Structures are given as C-alpha cells and as structure tokens.
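Trying the structure run again after the queue cleared.
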Amino acid sequence: QAQQAQQAQQAQQHVQQAQQEVAAAAAAQQAAGQLSSRLSSANEQVWLRIGWISELMEDHDKALSAFECALRHNAYNVQTLTAIAQNFRKRDNWPKASEFLQRAVKADPNNGETWALLAYTYLLSDDLQNAYTAYQHALFHLPNPKDSQVWYGIGMLYERCGSYEHAEEAFTGVLKMDPNSDKKTEILFRLGTIYKQTQKYPQALECFLHIVNSPPPPRTAADVWLQVGHVHEMQSQYEQAMEAYTKGTNDNASHPKLLQHIAWLRLLESPLQNVQSAIQLLLKAAELDPNDAQTWYILGRCQVGTREYNRAHFAYQQAVYRDERNPTLWCSIGILYYKIGQYKEALDAYSKAIRFNPYMSAVWYNLGTLYESCKQPPDAKDAYQHALELDTESAYIRERLQRLQLAADNPSIQLDDLPQLPAVIEPVAIKALEGSGHALAAATAAGGAKPAMETRPGSVVPSAAPSAVAVSAASALSGHIDFSRFQGNGTGSLVTPEAAEVARKMASEGGLLGLALSGKGGGGAGAGATNNSAWANFMSAATGGASSSASVMGLVSALTGGHVDKDVEMKDVGGEKKVEERKKEKGEKKEKETKRKKEPTDKEDKKSKAEKKDASKKLGVGEGEEKKEEKKDKIPRGGAGLEALLHGAERSRDYEKGDDDEGKA
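Done. Tokens:
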C-alpha cells in the first residue's frame, strides 16, 4: 500500500511536470508568434521606407521592388497599395495604377482619400464614367468634403464633360479653399480656356496674362501667348492677336500652332492679309507637326485659291489621313473635284460630308450646283430645298430655286444670261481666297511659282461669300476658325458622346455638387434644386467667403436642367426613336446594302470604279476635262442618287464609328 501510494504520488508529480512543460511550450510558441508578427510588421515598415526613399531619389524601379516586398508581408496594407499605384501613375501606367487602387478600396471601403485618388486616376485615363462613380464614393466617405485636391479633380471632370459652369465653380472654389495651391497656375490656365469657350473674354485674358511668366508645366510661355492671341482673334482684334502671337514666337520660333494662327490671320480681311506669306507659314507648320489635320486643311484651301490643284489635293489627302470623319474637309474636297471637272469624285466627297454631318447647308447647295452642271434640274431642286431648310436666310439658295422654276416654266430662257451666282460655297469662309483665284494665280506666277495644274478657261466659276448662316451651320470651324479641337497644349471644346452621357447622368442624379450638399451617395435629381441656401452656405464655409446667389442659382439650374442636356443632344440630334427601333433599322439597312453589293455590276459601273481609282492615285485636269461630258451622265439620278443621300442623312444621326465601311476614307 505504501508503495502504491508512493507510485501514485510520483505519477501525479509527472503529470504536473508535463502540464508545466506544455504551458511553457505554448507560451514560447505564443512569444515566437508575436515576435514573428512584430518582425513581419517591422520588415513591412522598413521596405515601405526604403521605397519612399527610393522615390525621393527618383529610382522608381527600386521603389516598386521595395513596395512589392512590403506587400508580401501584408497584402491588404492600404498604404502600400496606394504607394504602388502612385508609382505606376508616375510611369503613366493608368491600368496598373487603377488595379492597385481598386484593391486598396476593397481593403478599406470607407477610405474617402483612396476613393478620391482612384477617381483622379480614372479621370487621367479618360474613364469618365468610373471617375464619376469614384468621386461619389469619395464625397460620401470623406469626413470633410472641403478638400481642394478633390474639387480640382471634380472641376476637371466637369470640364471634360462640357459642363463649363460647373467646372468654373469648382475651380474657383479650389482657389478660395487653398490660395497657395501648387496647382494654381494650372487652374488659372483651365479657367482661361473655360472663359474663352463661354465668351467671357476679359476674364480669360486676365487669367492668361497672370500666368504668362510662370506657365504651368509642361506648357510654355509660347502656349500661353497662343491663348492670349486667340482670345483677341475671337474678338476680331487682329493687331493685338498678331502682337501676342509674335511674343509667343519670340519665346519659341518653331511653335507649329503659333505659325498656324499667324497664317490664319494672314488670310482674314484685315491689313495683315498676305496669302503667299500664309502658305509659307503653313508649310513650315506642317513640317514641324505633320500630324495636325487643321494645318493641312488650311494649306489645301490656300492652294485651291492659287489654283495649285495638285498640291491642294496632296494637302487634303494628308488632312484626311489624320481626320477622316471631318465633314468640312470632305465638303472642300468635293469643291476641289468640282472645279477641275471630276464630277463623280465630287459627288462621292459630298456624300461623305453629308454622312458625317447632314446639317451643313453649304454641302447641299454645292450638291445642287453639281446636279445643275450635269443637267439634272429635279435633283438640283431637291438639294436646294434641303439646303434652304437648313439656311432659310440664304439669298443664293432662293435665287437658285427661282431660276430653276423660271427655266421649267419658260424653257426658252437662257439662264447663262442672268447675273452669275457662286458655283460653290465653302463651309468655312476665307476672305482672302474668295473670288480671287485668277488674281492669286497671277501673283503666284509673277513670283516664279508656276501652278502645278491648269484648267480650261471658263471651267472654274469664282466663289462668292456665303451667307453668315451657311457658314455658322457648317461645323465647329465656323466664323473664327476653332483651333481648340487640334490644340495639343490646350483643352478641347469638343465633347465626346461618352462624356456627354456622363454629363447627362450627373445632371439626372443631382451631380457631385448636389452630393456634397446632401452627403448621400447618388443624390436625387432634385437635390440641387432644394438646397440653394445649403449650397451657398457650403461654398461660404469652404472658401471663407460668400458665394454669389446668381452664380449659385445658375449652377443649380444647370445641375437639374437644360445645360447638360443640350450637350447630350449631339448624340441623338432630333431623334425620338427608341434604341431598339434604331437597331432594327440599322439591321435592315445592312441587309439591303449586302444584297446590293451581291448584285452583278455592268461594264460601265466597273469602268467608273476604275476611273475613280486612277483619279485617287493622281489628280489631273486632263483626265477630268476629257471625261467631263461623259461623267455628266454617270452621276446617280433621282431615287438612286439624291434620295439615297437624303436617306443617309436621316440615318446619320444613328451612325456610330465602325458601323459603315463606306464612311472611312
């Protein structure tokens, strides 16, 4: 019994010892785990610091490698994910930057700063829809929406969508929130372009002149002087414009846009007019920047005016390569073919212009004169009537219709005995080239430059000045030529359909400004309308000053009403049909075109195609003049010709890029 008691006591001691050893092992393991976690966290922080130091040393590759090492220790560290995204942004790798920022917002969905950074990244990559959504989340989660960096991005978003009133409000708010912002000069430049677009010229000049000595990079002083000159030019202050452009060339004599603008001033009706000087400037600008379609177009127009038709054809060809969907360009190409007697090619060019923009009265007028030249009065009458619907003030169109009616009632009347009307109307009027082709050609010959192509006497009818409405209806190039579309250093005035769709969505949901008031994601359409005083208080608190009630009312009205919708109408001008109906009509149209293409063509059609192909290789007056009489009968008549164009005009509002191979150059 004593032995048994002793053994039991020893067993109990062994159990206690084992328990102590297990507890000690567990404690050691826990300590090791804590140590490992602390070491991993320390390594993560060290790699982060190495990455930041490498960024300061501008060694982006080493920085990225360090950040990736930090990410191995913690795949959900928002700080690390954001640092990697910033690294990719510096490399302009927007998809990768967006990818890591998306991972960051998934790791912490309530981080408003990360949402704002993601929104700005989307904005820089032209993903406006996702930028708008991300800014909604940012404003919802930011503890204080009065963040100047956020509102700078919102201003850029509104500007990109064509909502200039909203953009102006956002940018001015940034300057009031942070008067010493590092983006001050960039904001002033953008405000200047917005004021220029909205015809607030004194404010635009004030902004540009304020930054001319310290332009925002990568822009230079020459870029700012270009904007200053353009503002003066839009006000017909040509001498002041030339002075500004000259100051720009003093800063950079090889600035292609400055040369282009100076050349344009040389073509306007002013004491500065000099066509030959303009041509030389445009040739130099084209050499410096051969990818600018606008330079090639104006150069072609000048060479048509001096009757250098081969060179004009080459210039137009270069412009088409770079801007194949420009209706103004195709209209001018049609005029060139008409002047040298190649009527079939002229019809093809006019058809493309109508396909891309059926609302240019100049094209329909030119189409009417083309049909008249081919002795097809019914088709000419239809074209003139369509032109008159677009330009009811044109005396030329009315006179053409009256003469056609007079000839129909009295066949014995000789219309050639009546006062001459313009045979063509250019969609963009250039005063220096109107009705002066022979004089310019003589001046060119006197200067030793012989025209590359001559035409038969009487084959070219001098152009006259088109009506103001015809010019304004032509395109974005109306009146003073709109260079903003082609400016690489400025902000464009054209709003893409995608941007217009985002603008419409922002307006319907109350917009980001309305969201800042309500503090709720998605805001209602009436959010802005019901919070006028709230918005005024918000801007007053944000900027330290009172916001103009008139400005606030205009801003809220634009948010909830017509300003944005007018921009969106460009996507479906005058169209009230449902999307399904339009798709059905497109399908029927494609089926008809497929059947038509499968039908066998006769020898005459094949011959016309061969002639057209040869003409595209080399534009020669000899060929055009020899076949002029023959081609009069080859222009499609009646239903096969004009009605097809009218049908195409009705469908053009549904045209989308890539849907129609015939729409390509």
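The radius of gyration is 34 Å. Worth checking whether this holds up in the mutant runs.
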